[in-house]
Design brief:
Number of helices: 4
Shape: globular
Helix content: 10-25%
Number of strands: 9
CATH class: Mainly Beta
Strand content: 25-35%
Distance between the termini: 31 Å
Number of domains: 1
CATH topology: M1 Pyruvate Kinase, Domain 3
Structural class: alpha+beta
Strand order of the largest sheet: 4-3-7-6-5-9
Order of helices and strands: EEHEHEEEHHEEE
């Protein structure tokens, strides 16, 4: 199933992004580290240059979110107790989703199929990061994205159940 760009979705604790192929057949699992993938828009130009192309479409890379002006690679901490988050906030209400960066999003062999010969190597070091959802919230094109230092052992919010109203 090809990736489709959308202007709006919802981040859900334990699942990832509503409607994403990675969340459709899964039960909520707050400890799953690869609920959401993020890539820097600036890295799309780098990958294109390495491949000798004028541009690369973000949907070809199978990453969930494309962000600009934020160095995602700097959020990958080598310190086990340092936890970095990414907040995606509505500028009017100040509300939104909170993601915890869980590691690098390394390229896989599918990049050769998607980008052609050299696709895997072009993505090395430019694949972005994986994250888990700590707080439900809307995710829309144009929302404010900022870095947040998380408490060392801040547990994820519980997933809503039939007895718990959604936030």
């Amino acid at each position: 199933m090809p990736a489709v760009a959308v202007d709006e979705t919802t981040a859900i604790v334990g699942l990832g992004l509503l409607g994403d192929r990675g969340s459709l057949a899964k039960l909520p699992n707050p400890s799953r580290k690869r609920q959401v993938t993020l890539i820097q828009r600036e890295h799309l130009a780098v990958v294109a240059a390495v491949l000798g192309r004028s541009s690369v479409d973000a949907t070809m890379l199978r990453r969930n979110l494309v962000v600009s002006g934020l160095n995602l690679m700097a959020l990958r901490s080598p310190l086990r107790d340092l936890r970095m988050g990414v907040e995606i906030l509505d500028p009017r209400s100040g509300e939104g989703a909170l993601l915890e960066v869980s590691g690098p999003c390394e390229p896989c062999s599918a990049m050769e199929a998607a980008l052609g010969s050299g696709g895997y190597n072009a993505m090395r070091g430019h694949g972005g990061v994986t994250a888990r959802v700590l707080r439900d919230g809307p995710v829309k094109v144009g929302m404010t994205v900022r870095v947040k230092l998380l408490a060392p052992h801040e547990p994820p919010s519980p997933a809503p159940s039939a007895d718990t109203p959604a936030r």
